[in-house]
Amino acid sequence: MAAPLLRLDVSLLRPTVSVRTETAADVDAREALLDLAMGANRTRKSSEAIRRGRLPAEGLALVAQTADGELAGTVRLWNVAAGTQPDGEPVDALLLGPLAVDPALEGLGIGTSLMRRAVAEAGWRGHGAILLVGDAPYYERFGFLAAPAADLAMPGPFERHRLLALELRAGALRGARGLIAPTGRPAIVG
Fold first, then answer.
1. Residue 152 in this model has a pLDDT that exceeds 60
2. Fewest CB atoms less than 10 Å from the CB: which of 5, 10, 91, 173?
């Protein structure tokens, strides 16, 4: 008789992670995580031009933290004008990014947890739409599509097919066209 095979329940290997609002104490760990996950060129992206010198939208800077207190992931959303309506009125929206997970913990659902919480929190806070630049196969499962952002542009170079949007309120981006621009609170330096 053959010995029974041992089966390892891999769910036991998953760290316990909680998603919470970012605090000032998270800044150094967040920046180190972003450098690790995204590399040295992360600050040269078009999205960074929109974020530079601004604070994230109120209550929309989130981190994932392991039970032992290590930062496992981060996502932030920023107030922007998603171009303008035909009458020239700016279209209020959010820009999501960056989303990053510690490379050692990828594939464990941390990014998914951060995305779900960010989308839910943005909707709960009354925002109408979220924009991002990212891989459609990943973000489509959260409802992000290229079509609602088709008439919008990022400042500087960007890949058109990677500009995606999620309307939290039906028609929130209808008629919006033009350049995405920062509208959020300025960061206080010094």
1. yes
2. 5
The predicted pLDDT at position 16 comes to 87
Closest to 156 (Cα-Cα) out of 179, 183, 129: 179
78 lies in some domain? yes
Percent of the chain with pLDDT over 70: 91
Count of structural domains within the chain: 1
Q: What H or E segment, with its residue span, contains residue 18? A: strand 17-21
In the numeric block, which tokens belong to residue 123? Answer: 């909707």
Alpha-carbon span 106 to 165, nearest angstrom: 24
Q: Give the bridge partners for 74, in sequence order.
A: 63, 100
Query: CA-CA distance, 143 to 119, in Å (whole number)?
Result: 10
Mean pLDDT of 173-182: 97
Q: Of 99, 92, 96, whose CA–CA distance to 173 is shortest?
A: 92
Report which of 163, 170, 167, 166 is spatially closest to residue 50, judged by C-alpha positions: 163
CATH number at residue 166: 3.40.630.30
Give residue 10's pLDDT.
46
Q: Is residue 17 a contact partner of residue 66, using CB atoms and an 8 Å limit?
A: yes
